Amino acid sequence: MISQKLLDVNGLAQYLSLPKATIYTWVSLRKIPGVVKLGRSLRFDLEVVDRWVKERRVSQEPVLAGK
Question: N or C, where is the chain less crowded by C-beta within 10 Å?
């Protein structure tokens, strides 16, 4: 069985539940890591993207006033 390590734009958009246009915008602004260009095609390293997403998780801890 082959695990899919590289996703195309459609696959990444589906994986992140985002429009393809957002993915293309983030690529052009260099906001998303793990971009691999193969000829004219873009692929995304899923491990790198997963780490990037985890780094952006919002803490669920309550914010205490005055601290």
Answer: N
